[in-house]
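Sequence in, structure out.
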Amino acid sequence: MSNITNINFKILRKNAKLTQKQIAQHLNISSSTYVNYELGISEMPYELLFLLADYYAVSIDYLLGRNEVNHVLLSEKELKLIKYYRLIKDDRQKKVEHLLYNEVARAEAENEIQILIPEGEKRGRTAKNKVLKKENNSNEC
């Protein structure tokens, strides 16, 4: 594996403010195995490359050092949702955010998804929901 790939692993992880341990847990491997991939001691299997690319929303080409530009990959549906979100007024954006936070919390509680929390960041979804509820209630007055 090229040295660029190893650098990309580290850059992506650091930008996401995640530890090697957190990424290893997401990939369902040991921390030492992930460290070996990041240091270039071992080559990461394709299955894990796919998971990593999906997690960071980057192309496999970027991970493998074939493309030095990190393009965030969004589907047509995601682009359309972002466009619609930007078109609506702030109070409606807050309602969308509130709905999304609640759905993510539900999915996580039902073990449908696992959210990786960046190092040093607190789990703020519950607090965020309270803030959104408070803002929504104050807007109704």
